[in-house]
Structure formats: structure tokens, C-alpha cells
Amino acid sequence: MTLPSPGSYPALNSDNCPVKAIRPLETGLPATWWPSIVGTASVIFSVFWILRSWEQAKPLCGPTKVNYLTQDLAALLATLVFSYALYQFWKHRCETLGLVLGLATAVAAMMAHRL
Q1: What gap in Å lies between CA 44 and CA 67, rounded to an integer?
Q2: What global pTM score does this model have?
């Protein structure tokens, strides 16, 4: 039995692969809309975060209130950056898992925010 030479194999293209990975951001809406939707969702999340912070800081006054709100703003920024970094890390491996983990991180941070 002889083995075929390496030049006799047909070129393997990943584009010809019958099973494509499911990419949730490529279904439904045009791909150019997703950055706008993600940005809008981040702004809405940020508004709810700041409103909750402002509501909890009402009884405080002066520098204490400013310090409280500054800490909440830093926590919001850290949450947004971490969620985005988590999504970017998983994006090339399994985009669906990246979305789920990023959203779960944001939801968990919002629930734990100023308990």
C-alpha cells in the first residue's frame, strides 16, 4: 500500500466547510447596526447604574456624596471594560458564549452594585 503524496490532496478550504459556526451577531440585523446597538445598550445600562447610585446617595451631602458617586462611576467603568474584554476574549472561540458571559457579568455586577 502506498501513501499519496502531499501534493495530491485537494486544497482544504475552511470556506468549503459544510458546518459553519453560529455567529449570533450575523443573524437578524445587518452587521453594520450591531456597534450602534451595543453602544445604545451600554448607555442604557450606564443610565440605570448611575440612577441607582444617585438614588442611594440622596441622603448624603457634600464631599461624601461626590466620593460616593465617583466610586460608583469607577465601578461602572470597570464593569463595562471587563464585560467587553470578556466578550472580545471569547469572540474568536465561541461568540455565543462570549455574549452570554459578557451579559451575565454585567447583570451580576448590577445586582451586586451597592448591596
Answers
A1: 23
A2: 0.65
